[in-house]
Amino acid sequence: MSAIRLARGYTGRNKILKFEGCYHGHSDSLLVKAGSGLVTFGNTSSAGVPESFVNETIVVSLNNEEAVKQAFAEFKDQIACVIIEPVPANNGLLLQRKEYLQFLREICTENKTLLLFDEVISGFRVGFEGAAGYYKIQPDIITYGKIIGGGLPVGMYGSSKEIMSSISPEGNVYQAGTLSGNPVAMAAGIAQLTECLKKNFYEELESKTKFLIEQIFKNLKSEISNFKIFSVGSIFWIAFTDKGAIRSAEEIDADSMKYFRILHKELLERGVYLGPSGYEVGFVCEAHTKADLEITAKAFGEALQIALK
Ligand SMILES: Cc1ncc(COP(=O)(O)O)c(C=O)c1O
After folding, report:
1. pLDDT tens, residue by residue, 127-174
2. In CATH, which of 2.40.110.10, 3.30.450.40, 3.30.200.20, 3.90.1150.10 is domain 201-307?
3. Ligand 1 mean position, distance from CA 120 (Å)
4. In the chain, N or C terminus with fewer CB closer than 10 Å?
5. 2-196, which class in CATH?
6. How many CB atoms are located within 10 Å of the residue 292 CB?
7. Tens of pLDDT along 172-198?
């Protein structure tokens, strides 16, 4: 919400462009074709958001260059920012091609539109520099959450000195909040990030994720063509599909969620708690031991057998 306000204040433009299935929090103008809890319950936009707000939000499909070009042509000099989860992880894990993110970088620069990477999920999960570092693409504004507070409530946005000088009191974009910079959350965040900076932290995290996935496939009684696990860094997503890649929300077969529901229940009975929706991703964390991952993989083997019966 604050990052979008900054983009609008800095550019003097009102419209924003977002992608179908990308979730950016529960502020009004972003609850349009969002993922997360909305997609789980089958309605991807929220009631209670005035139409006039929605009119300022342009929504296009992920992985579609033409749609973005058309939006820029139709709304010339009106788009303040393009906001994207560079690793879209709220509507399944819709891994984007690096070339596509690069294309967004270029079209934004050409149109004096800011590129906003929402790294609330990918930040500190795919590496210490988030997806921006992973793909080596520099956004104009970046947002973080969750991990930077060590799990306590905090959100953050950052940008270049020039763009940030638009923020009050130096500039005229207002920013304040009772809980902004809350000292307990800040202390937890510093403790968390100090852990993340330890040598080989991300290498180990990624190899744990790969180990879990390998073990799950090892525990399958037979090969299953419509079961996949997509992953990047410490993020993974269980998908019941025979596609080799899924890059946009429309490519997900809603009917396949029936398998996830059984899998989720069977795993719960075996002491493994996945997020309660097939559109949610999972995370491997530093605290998981090899034994935890082995137990999880074994439970998967049994639960999948039942889910796909
Ligand atoms: C990518 C992304 N951006 C932003 C948010 C923050 O949302 P909020 O603070 O409104 O819950 C989330 C929350 O899950 C998220 O996944």
Report:
1. 999 999 999 999 999 999 988 998 898 999 999 999 999 999 999 999
2. 3.90.1150.10
3. 6
4. C
5. alpha beta
6. 15
7. 999 988 888 899 999 999 999 999 999
